[in-house]
Amino acid sequence: MRIKSTLENYIFVLPAVLIFAVFYIIPFIWVFQLGLFDWDGILPTKIFVGLDNFKEILFDKIWWQSMGNAGYITLIALTFQNALAFLLAWACDREIRGKNFYRVIFFIPPVLSEVVVGLVWQWILDGNYGLLNSWLANLGLGHLARSWLSDPQTALTAVAIVHCWKGFGWGFLIFLAGLQTIPRELYEAARVDGANAWVSFRKITIPLMVPVAVLVAILTVLGTMQAFVLIIAMTGGGPAYHTQVPVLRILASMRGSSRFGYACAQGISFGVILMAISFIQYRFSKKSRA
Amino acid sequence: MKTGAYYKTKKTAINLLIHLFLLTVATTCLFPLIWMVSSSLKSQDVIFKDTSLLPKVFHFENYYRAWIEGGFGRYFLNSIFYTVAVVIGIIIVSSMAAYAFSRFRFPGRNVMFVMFMAAMMIPIPGSFVALYVLLNKLHLRNTSFGYILCMINVGLSTSIFLLKTFFDKMPKELEDAARIDGCSKFGMWFHVALPLSKPVLAVVVVFNALNVWNEYILALIIFDSRPLMPLQVALTTFQGEFVTNYPLLMAGLTITALPIIIVYLLMQKYIVKGVTQGAVVG
Question: Are residues B250 and B36 in contact, defined by beta-carbon separation less than 8 angstroms?
């Protein structure tokens, strides 16, 4: 009876554990194994190269350039996108008419796919027939018109701004949920004590929102550093390597140059860097809370 | 002396500014979509010249052409099929596991649960490389079944977490009563726990459905043959081939975006819930 009951329990978790073991744990282990080999993904023989792939990464200029590009996009997302998200959340947290309407609208870009968003914006930013350039021409600013996505000077920033357009709704919703947990009585009490709106914003809202801001920052960094589908749809990583990002490089190592081992080594290094960044941010948040 | 009227005007002015700010951002959110629909209704002859939002002639036949000639009809049905199959799979598999993690005691329970939770926290950016190799070995690459299994796995951890949290808070009395009436464990899961967990199941369904519908990278590396591709991958290949046919491309984009927007507008309550709950996990 006991044994039958235990067996029954395992039957409940079996499908989940089986799928997880095959499609998560095995690939996870293989990434680490393959990272030590030179392999084209087809031949039955893999050549063991030890840590050579990782050494190569250290001197892979395009890899580090793409890391820098992702860092640049992340920096814009951390500042511009999150500041916008916070301001909007703050505005919607007030007694204001139509805040549900705004809330619904701001989360439309996040539910769309990166492919759809990327292709629509690519059409808007198109150098020859794009809407932006024709608007600039109509405003008499025709000299500013350019091929936004194929000009090395603007491509990366254009991609970053579209990324922010697509992503700010996430931060907005999380900030709004955070703001709504602040008890209204705190503001009341502050007002009775003679604090004006600015003082209570600085002394109540900001300190209480620090943990939420750290959470949003961690999610922003993890999400933005790994973003790449939007870039496939907008520029494909070009012009030259100006909008390349790490995951695109991993994909290129795998599909372009058929170097599966190198692709896995890139994935591991990148994963370690991401873990380190979010760990530092987490520690930082603990310190600031203490 | 500042009168009540002064403060009232000041407040109105501030509110006006805030509305102006919010409206500007809202317009920025909506405009690209309006432009997408507008472009999809123009003809290839005028699309590069006509920058008006309302086309003079509505070329609805672009949708017909995209659906038939562009093959979007096929891709659309593929996307629907993958989304439905994955969501059903996730509901069954994750609710069973979550129910066991919440209600039963058995050796290895905690280890397994912690593993699922750890998977949510650890980013492995190169995992698609290994998944490609794995599916090749299992002869599941370029099959719908392989893709569906991969996508079930993608949604598993979060769904188990959401469902287990819900089951933990659910009173056990009903299940106790059912057990006394001779209900089996499967019966309690299927007839008692699942119907009671509708609110959280809605969150699980909506989130996973959005996720599968919008998924790109796994579909890209798994499918070689066109008839199996979902919309997202088809769009990027379409873009390469019909590079100048913007009306058809925009019609394809609208076909891809519309179901998501409709589902979102109908279910946005659950999406907000999911985002805020999911944020707590992270």
Answer: yes
Task: Give the up-direction half-sphere exposure of residue B228: CA atoms within 13 A in the CB hemisphere.
Answer: 17
- Report how many helices (DSSP H) and strands (DSSP E) chain A contains, helices first: 16, 2
For A235, the token pair is 């520029």
As a dihedral over the C-alpha atoms of residue B230, residue B236, residue B241, residue B244, rounded to 10 degrees, the angle is 120
Where do we find the tokens 């027939």?
A129
For residues B227 and B207, give the distance between their C-alpha atoms in angstroms, rounded to a whole number: 26
What does pLDDT average to in each consecutive run of 10 residues of chain B (282 residues)? Answer: 73 88 95 94 84 84 88 94 97 96 91 91 84 93 95 94 92 85 88 90 92 94 92 83 79 94 90 72 46
Mutate to test the interface with A, among B72, B76, B129 (most CBs of A within 10 A): B129
> If you count them, how many residues does chain B have?
282
Which distant-in-sequence residues (6+ apart) come within 8 Å of B267 by Cβ? B202, B206
Structure token digits, residue A244: 């390349």
DSSP state of B225: S
Structure tokens at A279: 């760990």
Contacts of B105 (CB under 8 A, 6+ apart): A9
Q: What is the pLDDT of residues B73-116, one digit of tens each?
A: 999 999 999 999 999 999 999 999 999 999 998 898 999 999 99
Please count the residue pairs, one from chain A and one from chain B, whose beta carbons lie less than 8 angstroms apart.
Answer: 247
Residues shown for chain A: 290
Contact B32 A215 (CB under 8 A): no
